[in-house]
Structure formats: structure tokens, C-alpha cells
Automatic annotation (TrEMBL):
It is found in: Mitochondrion. One of its GO terms (cellular component) is mitochondrion. It comes from Syncephalastrum racemosum (Filamentous fungus). PANTHER family: MITOCHONDRIAL DISTRIBUTION REGULATOR MISATO (PTHR13391), PROTEIN MISATO HOMOLOG 1 (PTHR13391:SF0). This is Tubulin domain-domain-containing protein.
Length: 319
């Protein structure tokens, strides 16, 4: 098997990645379904496993990175991997304890619908596109707990210390690696599970600090895998209206990302979300350029097409 590990960095990349994984899930057949997907080799991007309770699993071979607050209602331990075993902790403290629980992100109506489908397969629900607030709102798949990686140095909604420049992202990676030991934890889990690693496909946001974070990550990756192909999709969002100072900041982030990420990538592919003017020339796509839920789906379709070559049974190399 020629496995590929997927790395996703940042909210914009995860919007695209969620559409991509939802599409992969749509290729699966269940029960008596007779859809012909024999040309797709799912094991390239997915891994088979087993939970602590003996349940067989089939989850993306992916590592997803986002800031605190960026995962929405998506939990690290989902229903598939939750053993519901609450450990009791004994303590000699006899003065009582207080439990402080952070407010949880409300579950989107579409996620409620997916839960309902498990008991009522005929339940009908139409997703409200305008109600999507983050990428986990329309996520359809279960990830392995080791796939979910929170960058704890910054919060998504932090306006005092925003995660918005390349240098901030580079320093954030150093702090993250010092705390989490990136290549000795979750990454090692997925890499050592591969029989014949074909390469890495990287989806990263580069308008903000995630370009710098990704550069730190790929720099360390190249020390471990100097000759393994790395296909990087650098995802950028076309802003309709933006202050001049913000435009300059984004352009600098993009320039630094292109210069440095391309050094660590076998192939570097910049992708931009389409503008309303560009969409006017594509009559068969009815997308709202102001909805990231729509524009990210178009980029996911492009990645789906590009990656088809190395996901087929009779496939070409990654790069």
C-alpha cells in the first residue's frame, strides 16, 4: 500500500479539508448499495483501526491543526472513540471541590440531524448555508482522537494578540513543538502505521500566521523525511473589502509562505477562493462568494481532482 498522510493547518484549510473528507466519505458504499467506486483505493488516505472496546474503525490518516475555539463543537473524543468510562479520582482533600466547565460551542442543526439519522435513517434535513459559522458545522466524518491538534498558544477570537502574521506563526510552532513534541506524538502514530508511505499532502492557510506555523512544521518534517514527496496546497481567501494595512499584512504573509514553504515542498500549489466576478463566468456553479462554506467547496473540488491520480487503484506517484 502507498499511503498518504494529510496535514491541515488553519481555519481556511480546514474549511476546504472538511469538504474534501465529506466527498471521500460519499464514495463509501454501505449495505446493498451498488455504487461503482472500484477505481478509488480508500486505504491511501484512510486507516483501519480498532477502539478500546473492540469496535472496528476506518478514519482519515490526517492531522488537523487549528487554534483554541477553532474546532467548534467537534470533540477530540467523539462518539466512535468515547468509552464512557469515567475514572474515579480519590483525594484526601475534604473541603469540597468546584468544577469549572468552559462554555461549549453550540451544536449546529446539521450535526443534530446527523445524530438523528443514526436512529431514523429516513430523517430529512436541508442545511442552511448561511448558518455555517465554522468548518465543524458541516463535518460528516469521525476522526481519530490523535487527528485533532489544538494550538493552545492562541485563541481564534483573540483581538489583543491575534494570530495574524508569519513571524507569530513561526514562534507559535516553536512553542507548540516544545510543549507537544510534535513528531513524537500524534504524527509518529500515523507515520508508523504506514507500510509504504507515499508522501504528504498539505492543506494550509497562508493569509495569516499559519504560513509561519506550517514552515516550522515542514522544516522539522524534512529532517525526518528528506526525500519523501510533499504536495502543498497554499490556500488563500480573496477579500472583498479590506483596510490597506491589512492588505499589506496578508500580501507579506503570502510572499513569505510562497518563498519558504516551496523550499520544503516537492510541489507548491497556490489556490484562491473565487470572487463574485470570477463566479459570473461559471454559469453552472451557483455559489455565494461571501460564504466561505461555498467558496471553499470549489477549492476542495480542485484538490479532489488533482489528488485522484494517487488515490486510484492504478495510480500515479504523489509528485
Amino acid at each position: 500500500m502507498r499511503e498518504v498522510i494529510t496535514l491541515q493547518f488553519g481555519t481556511l484549510a480546514n474549511y476546504v479539508g472538511t469538504h474534501f473528507w465529506n466527498t471521500q466519505e460519499a464514495y463509501f458504499t454501505y449495505g446493498d448499495e451498488q455504487t461503482d467506486t472500484r477505481s478509488i483505493e480508500h486505504d491511501v488516505l484512510y486507516r483501519a483501526g480498532m477502539t478500546a472496546t473492540g469496535t472496528e474503525t476506518y478514519t482519515p490518516r490526517a492531522l488537523v491543526y487549528d487554534l483554541k475555539g477553532g474546532f467548534g463543537s467537534l470533540q477530540k473524543y467523539n462518539r466512535l472513540f468515547n468509552t464512557n468510562n469515567e475514572s474515579s479520582v480519590s483525594s484526601t482533600w475534604d473541603q469540597g471541590t468546584n468544577t469549572v466547565v468552559a462554555p461549549q460551542y453550540p451544536k449546529h442543526a446539521y450535526q443534530e440531524h446527523l445524530d438523528q439519522l443514526e436512529t431514523d435513517p429516513n430523517a430529512d434535513h436541508q442545511i442552511d448555508d448561511a448558518s455555517i459559522q465554522t468548518w465543524s458545522d458541516y463535518n460528516r466524518i469521525y476522526y481519530h482522537p490523535r487527528s485533532m491538534n489544538t494550538i493552545t498558544t492562541h485563541h481564534k477570537e483573540d483581538t489583543i494578540a491575534p494570530f495574524d502574521t508569519y513571524t507569530v506563526g513561526r514562534q507559535s510552532y516553536e512553542d507548540f513543538d516544545r510543549e507537544e513534541e510534535t513528531f513524537d506524538g500524534a504524527f509518529r502514530f500515523f507515520a508508523e502505521d504506514c507500510d509504504n508511505l507515499q508522501g504528504f499532502q498539505v492543506l494550509t492557510s497562508i493569509d495569516d500566521a499559519f504560513g509561519g506555523f506550517t514552515e516550522g512544521y515542514l522544516n522539522a518534517l524534512r529532517e525526518e523525511y528528506p526525500k519523501t514527496p510533499v504536495l502543498t496546497f497554499a490556500i488563500q481567501q480573496q477579500q472583498q473589502q479590506q483596510l490597506l494595512s491589512e492588505q499589506h499584512k496578508v500580501l507579506l504573509n503570502r510572499a513569505l509562505s510562497m518563498a519558504r514553504l516551496s523550499e520544503h515542498s516537492t510541489t507548491y500549489i497556490p489556490l484562491y477562493t473565487p470572487t463574485s466576478q470570477q463566479l459570473k463566468h461559471v454559469p453552472y456553479i451557483h455559489a455565494n462568494s461571501h460564504l466561505l462554506y461555498h467558496t471553499s467547496a470549489i477549492l476542495a473540488a480542485a484538490i479532489e481532482t488533482v489528488s485522484l491520480n494517487y488515490r486510484q487503484v492504478e495510480r500515479s506517484p504523489l509528485c
